[in-house]
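Researcher: Quick test of sequence recovery. Tokens follow.
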């Protein structure tokens, strides 16, 4: 198998219920905490899918769409801002794992 860059690998991820518009997100982030009391904003650099970003005004934003369900942010956030629940197979989105 050809060695792919991380961005190329992420582009191959497919999701259950991909075409559904009403998807219940499996991660909800209280960005008020991110943008007020969080001293390190570590999820903006540990998320492999770049779901947490920081803008030019140092404001943290979160978007769940590219999440690969690695679980890193669930452990990395020590500020109580991340509510992480495995997606329901019917109403959640959820990564379709092909290789285990
Ligand atoms: S570590 Fe937690 S509180 Fe800080 S930016 Fe990340 S999600 Fe927000
Ligand atoms: S579970 Fe992983 S990929 Fe998804 S938002 Fe958290 S760190 Fe990013």
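Model:
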């Amino acid at each position: 198998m050809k060695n792919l860059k991380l961005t190329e690998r992420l582009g191959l991820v497919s999701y259950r219920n991909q075409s559904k518009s009403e998807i219940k997100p499996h991660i909800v982030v209280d960005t008020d905490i991110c943008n007020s009391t969080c001293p390190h904003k570590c999820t903006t650099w540990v998320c492999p899918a770049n779901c947490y970003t920081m803008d030019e005004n140092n404001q943290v934003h979160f978007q769940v769409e590219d999440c690969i369900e690695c679980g890193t942010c669930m452990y990395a956030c020590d500020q109580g801002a991340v509510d992480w629940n495995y997606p329901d197979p019917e109403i959640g989105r959820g990564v379709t794992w092909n290789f285990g």
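Strands lie at 14-15, 27-29, 52-54, 60-62, 82-84, 95-96.
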